[in-house]
Amino acid sequence: MSLNDTPTSNRVHIGFFGRRNAGKSSLVNAVTDQDLAVVSEVMGTTTDPVYKAMELLPLGPVVVIDTPGLDDVGYLGEKRVKKARQVLNKTDVAVLVADARAGLGPDERGLLELFAEKGIPRVVAYNKCDLLPSVPEAGPGEIYVSAAERVGIRELKETLARLNVSPEARLRLVGDLVSPSDLVVLVIPIDKAAPKGRLILPQQQTIRDILEADACAVVVKEFELRDLLGSLARKPRLVVTDSQVFAKVSADVPADVPLTSFSILFARQKGMLDAAARGALAIDRLKDGDVVLISEGCTHHRQCDDIGTVKLPRWMRNYTGRKLEFAWSTGGDFPEELSRFALIVHCGGCMLNDREMRHRLRRAQSEGVHITNFGTAIAQMQGILRRSLGVFPHLALEFDWLEAEARAAEDAGGRDLGAAAEG
Known about the structure:
Rossmann fold, globular
């Protein structure tokens, strides 16, 4: 996928599930009209989920996911099944592929129950219908197809399009916070950790959303910010900064100019801002020996002063004065057991779709573990959390209550998570 393509996190994720040799890979190839997945008569040919970002009309930008058979056996088979089930956490639309000759068995019915439990729209595709003596009438949410003969493929894609709940329905990043002609200043450090020749995805997406709101985006490095603000003929509606330079930017931006960070904007868009605020306040209650999980949704080359593995642990130890321990997860890996962590500090999640971020949030809350993200955590440690959340009216009004809730939890010595966050 090129830099000009729709980001993976903004694409509809379509997962193909079923037993081995039901024809999932063949159907994926037929739907995508390319040899995306390896096809073989050997059971268990697909050993890992296969992802393909593409334009799939009439749906638009999608990620198609081919998964291992959920009836795989043996030690490796169990690992493959585990990987396939993990795909459910990011699936927006599911295709249950069943052999038309065998119909639905216990494995398929179990999958349908999982889809319903997770609220995933689905369609049942009875594959290999060309091998039936006659094709029966399909029931609601069902379709008969043949990947080999390209029967019913167009109808399947149209059915998927009708099931789709577009990610565009989610909150905007910043566009709803500004008005046409407003001036938004973006502070973007260009240091050794910055990618060569480009901006990172959160910065690109924020600029795009500002332009879509008919507002004006001005981009500056942190050391030029003060001079820029002094030269402007009018006051910025908002300043958005990289969280790593929060302290300097806060000192340079007048108190009457709203200030937040890219990471905090993503926390709101992903539906976890309220939870992130509570989690940031929980940093003050960490104790010696507590384990903090730092989770990033992407994998990248680590620099010598990497934020996730170096800066955040150092800042948290210095801020709390505690002997904290740290664990890390990256990409699609997220620990199955969370209760051993005192706090989870997550990245903005720009590479994860909304469904997976909501899944991680629910997992943390169900196990009684506070979760925050990089921006809110850094703002709290810099003493500017209240200011950085002031741009969001509901949190500006509720912040006194959030702090009181945090103090009450500290007095009680517990981990009261308060009201569940939205999403």
